[in-house]
Amino acid sequence: MNDAVVRRNTVLLAATMAVNSAVLQLVAAVSSLTFVLVTGVRGLLGLGPAIFLTASALTSMPAGRMMDRVGRKPVMSFGFVIGAAGCAVTALATRTDSTPAVIAGFAMIGAASAVSLLIRAAAGDMYLPARRARGISYVLFGSVFGAILGPTVFGPMFAGKDVKVDALTVPWLVAGGISLVALVIVQFIRPDPKKIAELIGAHEDEAPAEPPAPLREIVRRPGVIPAMLAALASFGVMVSVMNLTGYVVVEHHHHTQSSVFPIIGAHVFGMYALVLVVGALIDRVGRTPALEVGLVVMALSTIGLMWVTTVFSTALLLLGLGIGWNISFVAATARMADRTSPAERGRLLGFNDQLAGFLAAGLALLGGYALDAIGVAALAIGATVIVVSPIVLIARPGTRTAVEETA
What we know:
This protein is mainly alpha-helical. The chain has one domain (about 5-405): MFS general substrate transporter like domains (Growth Hormone, Chain: A). The protein has helices spanning about 5-40, 45-70, 70-95, 100-115, 120-125, 130-140, 140-160, 170-185, 195-205, 215-220, 225-250, 260-270, 275-285, 285-305, 310-340, 340-375, 375-395, 395-405. The two termini are about 25 Å apart.
C-alpha cells in the first residue's frame, strides 16, 4: 500500500478524533448536570452518564461486527449522524424539561461514542505489527487538538453564568454541529482502512487464510484476557471519574461551571498529548510492562482526589489519569490487534468496548450515588481499587511469560 495513502488516512482519522473529542468534553463536563437540571433528581446524578455509557456498551459489539462486515468508513459515518441527532434531542430536552428526551438524547450520543472509539480499529488496520502501537498513537494524537478546541468553544458559553437548564441548549446544539463536521471529514478517507489491512496481510502473510474465528476462540488466545482486563479497568475508571468530576468541582468544591472545562481539557490533553511517545515506547518495551505502568499511574491519580480541592490540583490529577489511561489503553489495544486478523479485529475490540461500557456505566451510577451519599473519598478509593486489581493477574510470572513468548 502506498505510504502517502496511509499518511493521508491517518491525518484524516486524527482530525476526526480531534473534532469528536470536543463533543465528548461537553458530555463529560455537563452530562450529570444536564440530567439533574432536566429531571430534578439529584440523588441519581450518575444516571445521566450511566445512560450514555450503557448505550455505548450496547452499540459497541454490533458496530464492531458491522465494521468487520462492511468496512470502517460506513459505520463511522452512521455514528456521527446519530451523534449529531442525539445532541439536538438533548438540546430539545433542556428547553422542554423532558425526561424522555434527555434519556433518548444521551442514548444516541452514547451510541455514537461507541463508534468513535472504534476508530482505533481503523488505525490498527493500516500498520504492520511492529509499528501498530505507533499507528494507533498517530490517530489518537488528534485528540490533543480536541483538548484545546473543547474549552475554546464551550468555556465562554458558561463564563460568569449561573448554569440553569436553558443555558445548556446552545452548547448541545453546537456539539451537534461539531459532530457533523466529523462526518464530513470521514468522507475523505479512502480506501477503507479495512481494505488496507487486507492488502497488508496478503503481502506480509500476516492474516490467516481461514475464515474469522469465533469470538470465544479469539478471547482464549495468549495475552487477550490480560489485555481485556486492563482495558476494562482503565476505561471504566477513566470514563466514570471524568464524567463525575464536573459535579465534584461545582457541587462539592464550589467552583463555577466554567472552571470544569479547563479540568476536562487537561484530562483530554493527558489522554493524548504524549501518545506519540507512548506508542513508540510500547512497541519497544512490550505490551505487558506498559499495561502495568499505565494502571499504576491511574491509581495514583484517583487516590489523590481524596485530598485536592482547587481547580489546578484537580486538573493535575485528571491530567495524570489521562496519561495513565493512554499508556494502558494503547498497550491493550495493540495487544488485541496483534492477536486478530482484519476480519476479527472489530469484533474483539467491539466486545471489549461493550464490557468496558457496561462497567463504566455501573461505576458512574454507583459512583454518583456514593458521591452524593458519602463524599469524594468513596469515589476516589473505589476507583483506585478497581484500577489496581488487574495488575495482580498481569504481573503473575506464568501470565507474563506466556504473553511475551507469543509476542
